[in-house]
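A reminder from the course coordinator: this example appears on the midterm review sheet, so study it carefully.

Given structure:
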């Protein structure tokens, strides 16, 4: 019996699971939360020590539940672009900049002007969320901290260091977020020089290892922290949603993985390089050799729904369920409201961190259910807009698999399926990232020949969700309103975002 430990570091907490490869099933899962702080509008920070402590609590609980069995392999997947600045010994010099932190919008704009060939892999520029613009921001605004930093890395790299005492980078993260040239297998110092961070490559974790490659055996101290009685191989992981492609077995051209969570991520692979304007990529060899990974997504999705429910309406879980029930009785477009989901900017198809959210059409007759229903529709319309752009680019999309927050919010799931107007597979297991991490761990431990075989070995059964075509026709009308509102409000939205970035008066 080969048991694999998958670690999924999300925005709100870490989830761990033990997967039985022979039985093809998850034996146990646990989740432990950690906090996010927002020092200013558009900023988001976390404490790396919180990740490690939460991991220990979750993992020790799972191992106790199962009677401390022997583990064959471990792999972590984390949010991308959650940036840690630390010493060589892993001691953080400041709080980590969470992936959704968009303080580096000006630096993102600067990457678009660099015109370096390697930026072609990311569509010509870097997003404000990514490591390089964040490093640029630190070098400008926290120069002393940047100078002291011996390592600038992501959550994944920092966790792998805690597990193995080895600094390595993931080829997936490096290719997708660090401007790593995975064709020539190197960083381009001339690009970093042009961006004002000439020494950045010396601070990045290296060597760069592909997903599924073995790193080292779990360290003695780390094994004790996790509650393990043996020291399994730690395999290289990657970005949480992207690792979910292994869990969903959406590796073939024409497959699309759409994971709903704090954000929504849309992922697919191409068998050859081609322009994908408005998307991120295509990234060569990011997940597997010989394929070009393409990423799209919505920066704010489940987070918008949570913001309304928890922050604005101050509802607990029961209150949220009652709100969803009330909102589900409103027909498509029935509130007369239109919501734009750009609360933290837009990733696809506008690639604009300066856009901001809005709710249009408000009257004194609207209630909480109407507002929440409009927010759900806005997030669903954003997904439909991504699929619309795929059609415009003639990107094949024959199969869609979805998971994550959709499985916990039936209203959001139905709205999304109706808005895109296509059948969607919903696997029986909600957390494809943990299952994908288990697949990578199986490859790192030598239990399967490659990642393609690993994906086949872990994929779970699911059910098909069919769209309501009458509702889809109404969503098509709303999509026209959504696109018109985006265009009309964009200039004002950018001005408001600029004001939010200004420091408040002392």
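Designed residues:
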């Amino acid at each position: 019996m080969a048991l694999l430990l998958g670690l999924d570091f999300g925005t709100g907490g870490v989830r761990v699971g033990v997967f039985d490869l022979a039985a093809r099933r998850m034996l146990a899962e646990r989740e432990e939360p950690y906090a996010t702080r927002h020092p200013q509008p558009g900023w988001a920070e976390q404490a790396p020590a919180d990740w490690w402590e939460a991991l220990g609590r979750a993992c020790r609980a799972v191992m106790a539940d199962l009677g401390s069995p022997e583990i064959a392999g471990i792999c972590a997947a984390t949010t991308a672009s959650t940036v840690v600045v630390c010493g060589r010994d892993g001691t953080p010099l400041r709080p980590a900049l969470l992936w959704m932190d968009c303080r580096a919008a000006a630096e993102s704009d600067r990457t678009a002007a660099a015109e370096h060939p390697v930026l072609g892999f990311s569509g010509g520029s870097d997003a404000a969320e990514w490591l390089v613009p964040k490093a640029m921001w630190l070098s400008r605004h926290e120069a002393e901290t940047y100078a002291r930093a011996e390592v600038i890395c992501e959550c994944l790299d920092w966790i792998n260091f805690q597990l193995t005492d080895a600094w390595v980078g993931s080829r997936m993260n490096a290719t997708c977020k660090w401007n790593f040239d995975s064709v020539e297998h190197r960083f381009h110092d001339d690009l970093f020089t042009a961006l004002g961070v000439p020494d950045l490559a010396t601070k990045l974790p290296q060597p760069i290892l592909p997903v599924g490659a073995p790193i080292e055996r779990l360290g003695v101290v780390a094994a004790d922290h996790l509650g393990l009685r043996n020291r399994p191989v730690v395999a290289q992981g990657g970005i949480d949603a992207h690792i979910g492609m292994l869990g969903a077995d959406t590796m073939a051209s024409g497959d699309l993985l759409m994971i709903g969570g704090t954000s929504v991520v849309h992922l697919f692979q191409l068998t050859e390089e081609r322009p994908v304007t408005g998307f991120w990529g295509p990234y060569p060899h990011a997940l597997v050799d010989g394929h070009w990974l393409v990423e799209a997504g919505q920066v704010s999705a489940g987070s918008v729904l949570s913001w309304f429910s928890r922050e604005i309406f101050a509802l607990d879980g029961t209150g949220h369920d009652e709100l969803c029930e009330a909102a589900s009785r409103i027909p498509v477009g029935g509130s007369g409201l239109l919501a734009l989901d750009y609360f933290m900017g837009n990733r696809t198809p506008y690639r604009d961190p300066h856009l901001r959210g809005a709710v249009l059409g408000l009257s004194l007759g609207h209630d909480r259910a109407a507002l929440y229903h409009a927010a759900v529709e806005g997030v669903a319309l954003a997904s439909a807009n991504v699929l619309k752009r795929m059609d415009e680019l003639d990107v094949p999309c024959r199969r869609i698999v979805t998971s994550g927050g959709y499985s916990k919010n039936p209203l959001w799931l139905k709205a999304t399926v109706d808005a895109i107007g296509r059948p969607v597979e919903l696997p029986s297991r909600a957390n494809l990232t943990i299952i994908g991490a288990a697949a990578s761990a199986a490859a790192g431990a030598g239990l399967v020949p490659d990642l393609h075989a690993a994906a086949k070995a872990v994929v779970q059964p699911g059910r098909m969700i069919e769209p309501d075509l009458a509702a889809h026709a109404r969503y098509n009308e709303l999509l026209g309103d959504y696109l018109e509102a985006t265009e009309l409000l964009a200039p004002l939205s950018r001005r408001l975002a600029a004001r939010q970035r200004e420091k408040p008066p002392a």
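The radius of gyration is 22 Å. The mean pLDDT is 95.
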